[in-house]
Amino acid sequence: MTDPRLAHTRRTRPGGPRTWFDRVRATVFLVLVHAVPPVAFMLGTRPTDWLAFAIIYPTLAVATGVGLHRYFAHAAFATSRPVQFVMAWMACLTFVDPISFAGKHRLHHRFSDTDRDVHSPAAGFWFCWFGSLIDEGYAEEDLVGAAPDLTRFPELRWLHRNFVVPGVSLWALLFLTGGFTLFAVGYCLSVVIVLHQTSALNYFCHRWGYRRYDTPDGSRNNPLVAFVTFGEGWHNNHHRFPRAARAGVAWWELDPLHAVIRACAACGLVWDLVVAPRDDSAPRRLLSDLAAGRD
What we know:
The model is unreliable at about 1-15 and about 280-295 (pLDDT under 50).
């Protein structure tokens, strides 16, 4: 299996590892979810379409921020295997599986703001915002190799191979129950917003904002991005303590996603939340196993 540290850099081999099928599939998906909502607006929407949006959008936002990011990529808390599978299924509704996401995100932390970063703004706005969703410059084995703790679960490996099943199932359900506009507003608009929230985080939080900690990358805390991403924008804090369940450090750095995790903990669904130290006196490797992965 290829060691990501030995892989070709983006500068010498831009986007080479991805197959043409992977690129076409990702491109078609991005074009589809962006093109469909305007058509629905022109045709006219119904209250039920917006009710579906009000349910699906926050579900996808939580599945991405709490599930994909804080749990699968960083192990910010522990949970049972059934709940883990539910989070994985929900995450795949955006056509991103936990193994691929965790591997890609851990490579971001490992090579943040270098030529090997999977979505550095230094590579340009297009690559950071959209291009990295189509081809981040790493081979499949690189992504899988960065998430060995997840590949030991056969159900997660199945979702990795069949990550389109949850999303297509939701498509079919929406079409059958509410037709085109329910699908367009309830699903596509929700996905578009979550995608742009994620891209805004990757771009703006490595360019503008304040730095509480002297991390070896360009990560920054951006209050505006934190507001629109439910707490993910406290990015410099996150790069200093990547495994912490809460991204906000100061009392005023509000983190709604952490509130969701705490609510789940109160219900007994999750436990062993990782807490960042109150100051920066702890050793630099604290809470940063494998540069933000699990060890």
